[in-house]
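Lab notebook, bench 4. We co-purified these components, and the gel suggests they stay together. Before we commit to crystallization screens, I want a quick structural picture of the whole thing.
Request: model the full complex, all chains together.
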Amino acid sequence: MAKVRFRISMSLDGFVAGPSQSLKDPIGIGGLRLHQWVFPLAAWRSMQGLEGGEVNESTIVVAEAVSGVGATVMGRNMFGGGSGPWSAEKPWNGWWGPDPPYHHPVFVLTHHARAPLALEGGTTFHFVTEGPEAALDAARRAAGERDVMVAGGAKVAQQYLARGVVDQMDISLVPILLGAGERLFDTLGDDLRGLALVRTIAAPDVTHLKFVRR
Amino acid sequence: MAKVRFRISMSLDGFVAGPSQSLKDPIGIGGLRLHQWVFPLAAWRSMQGLEGGEVNESTIVVAEAVSGVGATVMGRNMFGGGSGPWSAEKPWNGWWGPDPPYHHPVFVLTHHARAPLALEGGTTFHFVTEGPEAALDAARRAAGERDVMVAGGAKVAQQYLARGVVDQMDISLVPILLGAGERLFDTLGDDLRGLALVRTIAAPDVTHLKFVRR
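Here is the predicted assembly.
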């Protein structure tokens, strides 16, 4: 059965983005340190059209992240372009260029309506103003028998985690401190909503923790 | 060469104690959930004089925690008995009964002087009022060629981590949320002072992360 999945990289002190997110620092100051483990991997490089790279214990996690996903949900911040109404003169079309790495429908949670944006390679961004449940419903319909991936950021993930609708959560725990920024688990109290640790993968510079809902 | 070691259990959201620590809840409300992984282990039970129990991937971590340790440093809260001057009428002698599980000198950081307290089995509590550096110096001298263990709580650990004197840090990451309480990494900024992840052990209901200073 199709699942709702969520994956993210988190520092040892619980941050999934650094402080002062901006166009220059989309994931905040120091936030890129959360993702250093993925860049050397052949599995990641091939998605960017690059050759070579490493194969290690993280490879399976990168492969899983894109396998069997039929739709993605993300927040306005993750799509980017600043806050407020969309600009007609200088339309923001996401961080990913003409051929984004999704290749399926992506539902962007926003307060500002906008026509769907179809880019190359099968990625169409749909802008949903009716809230997280409407976005998830639309994503589920679009995904069919495949899974829905909640891509982030933290606030969007918290909304779905709080509703108890996340069936699988993959935390890539990075053994660093960020000290400030956006915490993943700031609003959930002491309740993981049934998500239990089922797999731990020790990889270079990162530990992958897989939780599934019982 | 003798090392300064620190080990602690931490929740996925970074807490090492729950909120509202008290005599009734020495590690705060919900804090015992951080330690559920250790109680079924034969390695832990035998230290309490109990027979039976499980052997699993956590066994080595429990064995390491007591191996080669010649002295312990802990905070006043961890020794317990409330704050303020020591009571002469109702002396608090720690949580551990007549034969504490240390079997070596223990240095308790406190603002209130008190004569050393020698209990059974080789455990003597020394009360240090001259601050964390004096306590660590005394512990190093007492430990000789063996290691010094920083036992906690969080504030004491932070002081030694901030000084960069911790050579080895073992975090037992428990896949639960506490939502409130005492965070381990609240005061260290984005700097682990050279501590780098060198070993990850996947065990039932806990992931053991070993850091050493490079």
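Helices of chain B lie at 42-47, 59-66, 76-79, 132-143, 154-163. Worth comparing against the SEC data before the next meeting. The interface with chain A takes residues 12-14, 30, 171, 173, 175-180, 183-185, 188-192, 196-197, 199-202, 205, 207, 209, 211 of chain B (CB under 8 Å).
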